[in-house]
Amino acid sequence: MWRLSLTIFRKVVLPSIKGNVKFSKTFYSTRSRLPKSTAKLTLVSASVGVLIGAGYGGYTHYVVNSKKRPKLTLNEEYAFLNEAPPYQAHYKVINESDSSNLQLVLFQYRTCPFCCKVRSYLDSKGISYEIVEVDAVLRQAIKWSAYKKVPILLAKVDGGYQQLMDSSAIISALETYFRDKNSQLTEVIKFYPITRYTNDDGKSMTDITNKYFVMHNAAVPDQKERMEEKEEREWRQWADNVLVHTLSPNVYRTPGEALATFKWFEEVGGWKQSFPSWECALMVYGGAAAMWMIAKRLKKRHNLQDDVRYSLYNAADAWTNAIKKKGSKFLGGDQPNLADVTVFGVLSSIEGCEAFQDLRNNTNIGKWYDDMKVNIASKKGRVLAVHAKN
Predict the structure, then answer these.
(1) What is the secondary structure of 272-291 as a DSSP string?
(2) Residue range 274-301: average pLDDT?
(3) Which of 2, 30, 68, 222 has its CA 20 to 30 A from that of 15?
């Protein structure tokens, strides 16, 4: 939804204007580890192409996630870089108490729910890291990467830099690493193989196997712990497969809401400090127009109610009812678990939108959300702005 990929603008309009190992046997889990014909565009029609292209990337992302996954074709390796790619950090999160021994760089869109998930996790762990805001039009900040979606997390390891991708896989891999620091991060990611497959439209796509699983260095004998991990995985999947799909149709429900949403994105993302004025205007006005139109199709695709607010409310009710049933402050008990962090991260991506205020006014999500915000803030490092236009 926030993945504002101006594909047509970058690949059609601009060109026409310019010139016509095997896994470690000591690890065990609660399951086995199996693992876009372009037409010539005149300058008069270019603006239309921009508006359509502005939202196409976000729409495609949701289409992919709702498709039935056909048979898998091959596994690939995570990208490993001998040297750090050129980048300009826009923010640094510094925590003097960080004992992770990790040097991390997060490439993100500020209000992308999947990026918000990763930030929430890193902050909940009190980890220091750098943030690079990726320009949603040209995406120059990740030009070095063959993988063109965000979030991308770059970790300094022995001999170079390891690239991690997919928000859920990033969280699971890091959590596995933190639970057993005897293993190197480069070894841990082998439990989360990248798998390429062909979707229903014949397009080659990638996914991460085992991405909701946190691995253990021994079998988990305790039945209660196994059931808690199963519940945690199921709610993490629910956040990706249900909750996320209610967001776009709600925050882009009307032209006014869509524009207000993108203006909030511009403010909270520090776009004016990070990107050229023309690009900010394009992202705000082009993105709002495109996503308002696309949100209608997303509503239909994901079978949301005629009044999409109710689909959002129902999702929040399902979550808060699960916590109420457990009789605890968080789903994880007295402290948040990975499901709590995931759901909070997803919802935090719309915190400045009208839809979020309506959500608070019409459900019981507010108390849990505020508790999560306080909990994570108590562990999060100091945020230093580096703002620099390239």
Answers:
(1) HHHS-HHHHHIIIIIHHHHH
(2) 94
(3) 2
